[in-house]
Specification:
Elements: H1 2-14, E1 17-21, E2 25-32, H2 38-44, E3 51-52, E4 56-64, E5 70-79, E6 86-93, E7 98-101, E8 106-112, H3 113-120, E9 131-134, E10 140-147, E11 150-159
Antiparallel strand pairs: 1-2, 2-6, 3-4, 4-5, 5-6, 7-8, 8-11, 9-10, 10-11
């Protein structure tokens, strides 16, 4: 049993997505490696302009509510010399859109049509299934539900 616990811990340490939870926010970290393009995919899923920081390229944005309260903060930094090497930090703050379940280590951010369309302005257009990003370990997903050309809902999920 002890050996299995060590093995499981080692597997989880290698996971490309992980999160830290508090009562008012979840901070999700996405790490990219040679065989794992999750950070690159999230970086490419952002409409923000890339900033050259020497050895790295960086994109970031902050989405606020109409009252100025934080909703989503996303920062990604990728190496210019090593393919897929980089990291993204996605912070989802508790709001009317975000359910943060600390006990079960899950986050669901869901915004309906009007708010979802506004938030979609920060991301590239999804594929035909509505997916913008789905991490390789399937812990993190960013989706849009479309009906024709209009956004019906915007969703982010994380589950440990």
């Amino acid at each position: 049993m002890f050996i299995f616990a060590i093995f499981l811990s080692a597997l989880q340490a290698q996971a490309s997505t992980s999160a830290v939870f508090s009562t008012d926010r979840a901070v999700i970290m996405v790490r990219g490696q040679a065989a794992d393009a999750d950070a690159t995919n999230l970086f490419n899923g952002m409409k923000a302009s890339a900033v050259d920081e020497g050895d790295n390229m960086r994109k970031s944005f902050n989405i606020r509510s109409s009252t100025g309260a934080p909703l989503i903060d996303l920062v990604c930094s990728l190496s210019k010399s090593t393919v897929n090497y980089g990291a993204c930090t996605l912070t989802i703050s508790k709001s009317r859109f975000a359910h943060i379940d600390t006990a079960n280590r899950r986050v669901v951010f869901a915004a309906g049509a009007a708010d979802g369309a506004s938030i979609m302005g920060y991301f590239v257009n999804p594929d035909a299934s509505g997916k913008i990003v789905l991490s390789q370990d399937q812990r993190l997903g960013v989706y849009v539900d479309n009906a024709g050309q209009s956004t019906q809902a915007f969703r982010i999920f994380f589950k440990d």
